[in-house]
Write a structure and sequence with these properties.
The complex is a heterodimer.
Chain A lengths: L1 H12 L4 H22 L6 E9 L1 H12 L2 E3 L2 H4 L5 E9 H9 L4 E6 L2 E6 L11 E9 L10 E4 L5 E3 L5 E8 L3 E5 L6 E4 L6 E5 L10 E3 L5 E3 L7 E5 H6 L6 H5 L6 E5 L8 E5 L12 E4 L2 E3 L35 E7 L2 H4 L10 E6 L5 E16 L18 H8 L15 H14 L6 H6 L3 E13 L3 E13 L6 E16 L2 E15 L12 H6 L24 H6 L2 E22 L2 E22 L4 H4 L7 E24 L3 E26 L9 E26 L3 E12 L9 E11 L11 E15 L11 E5 L2 E5 L3 E2 L7 E14 L4 E20 L8 E26 L2 E19 L4 E7 L3 E5 L7 E9 L5 E8 L4 E11 L3 E11 L2 E4 L1 H8 L19 H4 L13 E3 L2 E12 L2 H8 L5 E9 L3 E3 L20 E2 L6 E11 L1
Parallel strand pairs in A: 2-5, 6-12, 18-21, 37-40, 48-53
Antiparallel strand pairs in A: 1-3, 4-5, 6-9, 7-8, 7-10, 10-11, 13-14, 15-20, 16-17, 18-19, 20-21, 22-23, 22-54, 23-24, 24-25, 25-26, 26-27, 27-28, 28-29, 29-30, 30-31, 31-32, 32-33, 33-34, 34-38, 35-36, 38-39, 39-40, 40-41, 41-46, 42-43, 43-44, 44-45, 46-47, 47-50, 48-49, 50-51, 50-52, 51-54
Helix pairs in contact in A: 1-2, 3-5, 9-10
Chain B lengths: L1 H22 L15 H4 L4 H14 L4 H11 L3 E3 L27 H21 L6 H26 L4 E2 L17 E2 L1 H20 L19 H18 L3 H11 L14 E2 L23 E3 L2 H4 L6 H6 E10 L2 E7 L9 E2 L3 H14 L3 H14 L5 H4 L7 H15 L6 H7 L23 H9 L3
Antiparallel strand pairs in B: 1-5, 2-3, 4-8, 6-7
Helix pairs in contact in B: 3-5, 5-6, 6-7, 6-8, 7-8, 8-9, 9-12, 12-13, 12-15, 13-15
The chains are: A mainly beta, B mainly alpha.
Chain lengths: 1124, 461
């Protein structure tokens, strides 16, 4: 009664403010708890009752106390009963009751833990259900027990959970009851127990359609996939890491997310991946999605090592191609990944979600037997492709012969014109070549450097298990790989503990602690500003150069800034990261009723990163000998980033008209970031010294950044019997990154999904699901730190401090850029979910795109740092077709084909056409230009247009026209599975400068061919492609980089259970042996190392520049996994 | 009783929720933790801030040097940058690229540098005008200095842009949100007129600036660090402007006002310099390179050596024979540009040698051939050469031949200082500059910067 009373009261209180509401909710909660404590008892099934001539009332009271049943009877009636004598030992409740009421004018029936005792003649005789006790076991498709599966008695609220052996016991169940057995990832099954006498075994089938998969969509709530109104990509551990072990999680996602453009920036160990979801979301910031791991908003920055910065060059730090920090996360710990691709799905994440949200859930313990898994991979990496080099020749009639020497080394100009005794430079080269040829000293330096086999060892150990109350997952991973270049490598060590505790029925909490240590040695590659990028120097090194060390001393290279072999062997470019990611989640049920639950969910976390970089060039290296500040340079950087986030949500789930499930949530979110980046560098080091303290010129720098975001969220979900699911919500965000730190920016969302097959009118049995969906949402993209500041810069001159006017002025009224998306789609599944289809079409508009507002530079100010300069539109189609075409006991084939495309267009621009991104002048750059794509290439020739302005020519886009991926898994003879994964990218163009470097250096493999290219006759290709040929335009460099790539292939064998039982007596539960490979082959016309490339790391535009990158590798693995 | 306790708990928990709601979810304004704001100097700048702005302006003047020198040196065929890490030095910059200079070319970098210096000067003047720590005489010292530097930096951009012209005005730099609307481009002639006006204004202000500057002058300005001595530098620039205007009498007038900086008998090296240091925050000499580097060597165009008169010490003091020639993209460099022995060697801003050569040019143009030749001899003798009467007596009475001689002396005296290209242009001799490769061509002027073109397209005036 109290409950009911308060329940009504709560409804009234809704009129009051939220805080009062919270208090009242708490009242309900506390009182509920106290009530539950009064009445909660164990329903023990066996009771004893002894007594001589005791009243029926007393007997019933005793039964009630022992069994936990309530009794309902009329006091007046029960007094009429005659006293009873009974001696029952350990009998079931019904037996005892039957004995008590034998010969009495009473009968009884049981309903919901309540036993109703009535006079026989006053109640119409109802058919007494026959009750029985059954035992059972739930098994998976392979016959393994399924602990934690849920068993409901159909038509009741009575539910059971299987124990660690998959077993369950149900007593006093109606003879003809039906059990509904379900487990996540499996098809639910209904089993009648009519013909079951005592025990039953129930096998569940894997649910290939994953329709019942729960996907995380909100900050605090989840939704069944079949109810989702947005296309949300869900990647399971099997999809991510099942076939072959990836270096990093983001690499594991490559090609698997419909709607994502994922590119590897560098082939160097440790990866470096850029991900763009549904096209470009920003120009100012990166288009990288937001990553959330177990509720912790993690930092995915790239920290510059300084390898490309001052002292080592004046190049921009984005040319360092550092790895992104997602590489710290151990892929083996990932349970699943959900990708909210656009604002319609990610609106609830507000101001940081413009580029999409990637929600990562790590593995957690399951109740039941302790599981120990040990796995070991051994792998080998080798270059996917080496470019090779052309030969040199003096053959007068052979291809090019001596003219190659002339073209490359002097074109006939003679040394020291005033001194005729000095030979021409080409003559010197010919002499060197002759000497090398005679001595047999022709070397393939590319092969010497990149022709090695890298070794990969991944070891993972995990222990998980627990009870219904406490679950744990403890893992440790040790990954170590060496690159195809000596002294390069990547190491990751991680320890993770996930703990879930169910304190009481209404209060759970979980924590996750992850310590990570990542080391990375990347050597020097990519664009070069100081003559030390190895692939760059290789382009200019002829094969007759003598660069091998003599007595340990590397000779100077006459062709490049340094000897590439010395760069391999001597300088240092390393990064070491120590990181702690800590998550905390707790849920407090304030109200738990079948028709209404109210819970408070709090989660928070921190992500602390300390990345230390070291770059060092010994003082006796060739490139150091001519350093202006003296030879020898070192640079040590500390990048500290401390990120915290927490959120509190009240989630109220209640029923409206019995069939409408309402979920209301309100919450508040806070995120903060505190960065401190510092470095010290020394130039002109004392011989052999590495500490910058021992340097002639010491420079240091310190940068602080801190910002805070706060968001308020409210969302309502309405689910009418899974038929129609509507969601509406809004989030208000404020941030110190905005010009007005207190202004709240709204991010609304709304969505509707209609499951036609759930309606009664739907008769077509072959169609299991036909869902129409539409979703709308808005997200934000924050200004970058400092965008609102107009600050003087400082300088030092003659020992005095000076200040300079800013060349870029801040925007004091800066606000977030926003993206608005409408997504429509249809999800279908046929033939018992054996075929599924998902199609989506979206239009994503980015409004008030932030970008530098380029001013007239004659004013001395280059730009406004960030300004709302216009709007941009992304449109795309995503299609996914999956199915199990063959399903035989000994052979099954599962396949999934995905197609997606995206086009980007600038739809409004208030600023002049502006260059964006990197890119190299005439060889291809990107422009922010009204009506065209910001990732389209522009380059020479420059021509005067109708307005009289010299404009570069527009070329193709760096974005692919479409991408297709095809994954297949074949299971045969039950224990073998073979899978492969193909990925096609079509119509993406790169700016290929690698070829240009090799042409200039005389090392391109086809240098000597004469194909009369670019308006030449009788000129070798390498010369004809040279930009000093006036007929050469950017067309030469902007090249089609379409490809078809076998990303993953794997074959695994699971040792049969019977064998394990026979030989290991259940000590070993599973053994899996396998082999796999990554990027085994790539079919492409593209002539660089890898069509996936970026000289500039993770930037929104201008990334697809190929300038002598680290060659990509293919990787081959052997696996062994043992479960105990 | 029980109820009462529960209620207390509820209240407690409620309060726990409400309290943090006030402070935790606040987002406090973040000010730049790394740098001072521009606004802090615009109103009532302190003496320290005035000093810092003065030092900043002097420091900023150094910024455009590298880009300006390499661009003018390459187009003027004085030297080549045979960088293996940047091909456009040997293609686009030398005219081989289809369509000529790219609209977005990096070779306009000095345009931004000198524009920024100009804005530094404007900011400094603005701060001084609004600062109560300065009296009017002191303000005049700032104004005179700033106007001179503004004119100096505009001259670089005007010469680079030539017939494209430059912008000579923009709206108040410091009112936020006005986009700093610039005035239209004015012709080369109008640009020179404006620069002259600024110099004359600066000279007047320096005349009313008392005996010392209201801010510290760096050591490179030794000898030019008071308003009066700095004014001689101002007149030196004025002479250069007059030279570009072909106002030969104007050159003589300005040079006379530049005395004692200008002196036919004094040291030719007298003049203000940029200094460099390895102190953190300072810069080192950007033109310094060690000999024989293979990364990005600046090499002399070979004719600089072979065309030289025997015994010219300027050749040996400015270039050095490489141990191995450097070849790249069809060009070969046998000599390194080697003008600065260390990374802290100073770079001359303007020196008496240039003033003497301008004097010679003006006299020759005014047909005062003897005076002109005498001035040329000052430079020749100082460079280890014989006077003209001994070395080239035939040209003494020949104005055209003396002009050729004068240009040649300028070529060697002002090597790699950004004069050769403009000198050849002034005398319509660009076609005489060598093209080492057939596809090379000599540009008349730089292309107008992309951002400027786009600005005018978007904001037609």
């Amino acid at each position: 009664m109290q409950l009911n009373f308060l329940f009504k009261d709560r409804k009234k209180l809704r009129l009051f403010s939220t805080k009062v509401f919270i208090i009242m909710k708490l009242t309900v909660f506390i009182i509920t708890i106290s009530c539950m404590q009064l009445s909660a008892k164990v329903y023990s099934q066996k009771i004893s009752l002894s007594g001589e001539n005791i009243s029926l009332e007393k007997a019933l009271l005793s039964i009630g106390q022992q069994s936990g049943y309530f009794f309902l009877y009329k006091y007046n009636e029960i007094q009429k009963a005659r006293p009873i004598t009974i001696h029952a030992e350990n009998k079931s409740v019904t037996d005892v009751l039957n004995e008590c009421l034998k010969g009495q004018p009473f009968t009884y029936y049981i309903e919901n833990k309540t036993i109703v005792v009535t006079e026989k003649n006053t109640v119409p005789q109802i058919v007494q259900p026959v009750l029985k006790n059954i035992k059972g076991k739930v098994l998976d498709e392979k016959g393994q027990p399924l602990p934690g599966a849920s068993i409901m008695v159909k038509g009741t609220k009575v539910g059971y959970t299987t124990d660690i052996d998959g077993g369950f016991t149900i007593n006093n169940i109606a003879d003809d009851a039906t059990l509904v057995v379900s487990f996540i990832g499996y098809k639910p099954k209904e089993v009648s127990i009519k013909n079951v006498t005592s025990s039953i075994t129930i096998s569940l089938e894997l649910d290939e359609s994953s329709l019942n998969e729960v996907v995380v969509t909100g900050l605090a709530t989840t939704i069944k996939r079949s109810d989702a109104a947005s296309s949300i990509t869900h990647l399971s551990a099997a999809q991510l890491t099942g076939t072959t072990p990836p270096v990093t999680i983001d690499a594991a996602m490559s090609g698997k997310i419909v709607g994502a453009d994922i590119n590897q920036n560098s082939g160097a160990p440790g990866g470096g991946i850029s991900i763009k979801l549904r096209g470009l979301s920003s120009i100012n910031g990166s288009s990288e999605p937001l990553y959330v791991i177990d509720g912790v908003f993690v930092n995915n920055s790239e920290f510059s090592t300084g390898a490309g910065a001052a002292a080592f060059t004046s190049a921009g730090t984005n040319q360092d191609q550092a790895t992104n920090r997602l590489s710290d996360i151990n892929p083996a710990d990932i349970e699943s990944i959900e990708v909210l691709k656009g604002p319609s799905a990610g609106a609830i994440y507000g101001t940081r979600a413009n580029a999409g949200v990637v929600i990562i859930t790590t593995k957690r313990g399951k109740a039941g037997q302790t599981t120990v898994n040990v796995s070991q991979d051994v792998g080998w990496a080798s270059a996917e492709k080496l470019l090779g080099s052309s030969n040199w020749s003096l053959d007068a009639i052979g291809p090019q012969g001596q003219t190659k020497f002339d073209y490359i080394f002097g074109n006939g100009t003679h040394y020291a014109t005033g001194d005729p005794s000095m030979p021409g430079n080409e003559a010197t080269e010919i002499a060197s070549w002759q000497k090398a040829t005679a001595a047999g000293q022709i070397h393939d330096y590319e092969k010497i450097i990149f022709g090695n086999i890298g070794k990969i060892e991944n070891t993972a150990v995990s222990v998980s298990g627990g009870t219904e109350k406490t679950k744990y997952y403890l893992s440790s991973g040790l990954d170590n790989e060496t690159g195809i270049e000596q002294r390069t490598g990547f190491q990751r060590r991680s320890v993770k503990l996930n703990l879930d505790e169910k304190l009481t029925k209404f209060w759970t909490f979980s924590i996750g602690s992850n310590y990570l240590n990542t080391g990375n040695q990347r050597s020097f590659s990519g664009n070069d500003n100081r003559g030390v990028s190895i692939p760059y120097t290789l382009a200019y090194t002829p094969n007759y150069a003598q660069l091998l060390p003599v007595n340990g001393i590397y000779p100077n290279s006459p062709y490049t800034g340094d000897n590439p072999l010395a760069i391999v062997a001597r300088p240092i470019n390393t990064e070491n990261t120590n990181r702690i990611i800590q998550s905390f989640n707790t849920t407090l049920f304030l109200l738990q009723k079948p028709s209404n639950t109210l819970k408070f969910a709090f989660s928070g976390g921190l992500d602390f990163i300390l990345t230390e970089d070291e770059v060092y060039f010994p003082d006796d290296m060739q490139s150091q000998l001519t350093r202006p500040n003296g030879p020898g340079a070192s640079r040590f950087s500390d990048n500290r980033s401390f990120n915290t986030n927490y959120q509190g949500f009240l989630i109220d789930n209640w029923k409206l008209f019995k069939t409408v499930d309402m979920t209301t949530q309100v919450g508040v979110v806070k995120l903060s970031t505190n960065n401190d980046f510092s470095w010290i560098q020394g130039e002109g080091l004392l011989p052999g010294q590495i500490n910058p303290n021992n340097a002639t010129v010491r420079t240091s720098n310190e940068t602080f950044q801190h910002w805070t975001d706060v968001g308020y969220v409210a969302q309502q979900e309405i689910n009418w019997d899974d038929k129609v699911i509507a969601t509406g919500g809004i989030r208000f965000d404020k941030s110190t990154l905005n010009g007005d730190n207190n202004k709240l920016y709204p991010f609304p969302r709304a969505s509707l999904a209609v499951n036609l097959t759930k309606f009664d009118f739907w008769k077509e049995q072959s169609v299991n699901e036909l869902k129409l969906r539409i979703a709308y949402g808005r997200t934000g993209g924050e200004p970058l730190f400092g965008n609102s500041f107009t600050s003087l810069s400082t300088t030092s001159y003659g020992g005095l401090l000076g200040t300079l006017t800013p060349t870029s002025v801040g925007n004091p009224t800066i606000a977030p850029e926003t993206a608005q998306e409408i997504e429509t789609g249809v999800d279908m599944s046929f033939l018992n979910n054996r075929i599924t289809f998902e199609g989506s079409y979206y239009v994503k508009n980015v409004y008030n795109l932030l970008n530098a507002y380029t001013l007239s530079d004659g004013t001395g100010v280059i730009s406004y740092t960030a300004y709302p300069v216009g709007d941009m539109q992304n449109k795309g189609i995503e299609l996914a077709l999956g199915g199990t075409p063959v399903k035989q006991p000994n052979f099954a084939w599962t396949t999934n084909i995905q197609f997606w495309n995206n086009r980007t267009k600038v739809t409004r621009l208030i600023i002049p056409t502006t260059i964006v991104g990197g890119g190299f002048s005439i060889y291809g750059r990107n422009e922010l230009k009204l009506g065209s794509s910001p990732s389209a290439w522009y380059g020479s020739p420059n021509a005067v247009d109708a307005t009289g302005v010299t404009q570069p020519t527009q070329y193709e886009d760096a974005q692919p026209i479409y991408q297709v991926s095809w994954s297949n898994t074949f299971t045969f003879f039950k224990n073998f599975d073979f899978s492969f994964f193909l990925h096609r990218s079509y119509g993406n163009y790169n700016s290929n400068l690698t070829q240009k470097q090799k042409d200039l250096g005389g090392t391109s493999p086809d240098w000597s061919n004469e194909d009369n290219l670019n308006g030449t006759t009788g000129v070798p290709d390498g010369k004809a492609r040279n930009p000093s040929n006036p007929n050469v335009t950017a067309r030469q460099f902007i090249q089609d980089a379409s490809y078809l790539r076998l990303r993953e292939v794997g074959l695994n064998y699971n040792v049969p259970k019977s064998f394990l039982t026979t030989h290991y007596k259940n000590t070993i539960k599973s053994i899996k042996i396998g082999a796999s490979a990554t990027n085994l082959f790539t079919i492409t016309k593209y002539e660089g190392y890898d069509p996936e490339v970026s000289n500039y790391g993770n930037q929104s535009v201008g990334a697809s520049v190929d300038n002598t990158p680290f060659p990509s590798s293919k990787r081959i693995f052997m696996h062994l996994a043992v479960g105990f | 009783m029980k109820y009462f306790k529960i209620k207390q708990h509820i209240l407690l928990i409620g309060v726990m929720f409400m309290l943090p709601a006030c402070s935790v979810f606040e987002t406090k304004q973040v000010v730049d933790p790394n740098l001072p704001s521009q606004a802090s100097v615009l109103t009532n700048a302190t003496a320290v801030q005035i000093n810092e702005l003065g030092i900043g302006l002097q420091s900023a003047m150094r910024n455009g040097i590298l880009s300006f020198r390499v661009t003018t040196g390459s187009i003027g065929r004085e030297m080549y940058d045979l960088s293996s890490v940047e091909t456009t030095f040997t293609t686009e910059l030398l005219g081989t690229t289809n369509g000529g200079l790219s609209a977005t070319t990096g070779y306009n970098a000095s345009y931004d540098n000198f524009s920024e210096t100009r804005r530094d000067a404007a900011l400094f003047m603005n701060a001084a005008n609004n600062s109560s720590v300065l009296n009017d005489t002191q303000r005049n010292s700032v104004r005179g200095f700033c106007n001179t530097i503004e004119a100096w930096s505009m001259l670089f951009n005007l010469e680079m842009q030539y017939q494209n012209g430059i912008r000579i005005s923009f709206t108040d730099l410091n009112s936020p949100g006005d986009m700093l609307n610039p005035g239209p481009f004015v012709s080369y002639t109008a640009g020179l007129t404006e620069i002259k006006r600024l110099l004359d204004l600066g000279a007047t202000q320096l005349g009313a600036a008392g005996t010392t500057f209201a801010f510290p002058m760096t050591t490179g300005w030794a000898g030019f660090s008071t308003p009066a001595t700095f004014a001689t530098f101002n007149r030196g620039i004025a002479a250069e402007v007059a030279m570009y205007q072909s106002d030969w009498n104007g050159v003589i007038t300005a040079l006379n006002a530049a005395a004692p900086f200008f002196s036919l008998s004094g040291s030719l090296s007298t003049g203000p310099v940029f200094t460099f240091s390895t102190t953190s925050g300072d810069i080192t000499n950007p033109l310094y390179q060690l000999k024989n580097t293979t990364t990005a060597p600046l090499v002399a165009q070979n004719l600089f050596i072979s065309d030289a008169e025997a015994g010219d010490t300027r050749v040996t003091s400015k270039v050095a024979l490489r141990t191995a020639p450097r070849s790249y993209n069809g060009l070969v460099g046998n000599y390194d540009v080697y003008m600065y022995p260390t990374n802290t060697s100073p770079i001359s801003i303007m020196r008496n040698e240039e003033l003497v050569l301008m004097y010679a040019e003006a006299e020759i143009q005014l047909n005062q051939l003897a005076a002109g030749a005498a001035a040329l001899d000052v430079v020749r003798v100082a460079s280890g050469l014989k006077p003209l009467a001994v070395a080239k007596p035939a040209i003494l009475g020949n104005q055209a031949a003396l002009i050729t001689e004068m240009l040649n002396q300028r070529r060697y005296s002002l090597y790699f200082e950004g004069h050769r290209w403009f000198d050849m242009r002034r005398y319509n001799l660009l076609n005489t500059l060598p093209n080492d490769l057939p596809a090379m061509q000599v540009y008349v002027q730089m292309i107008r910067p992309f951002a400027e073109v786009q600005w005018d397209l978007k904001h037609p005036q």
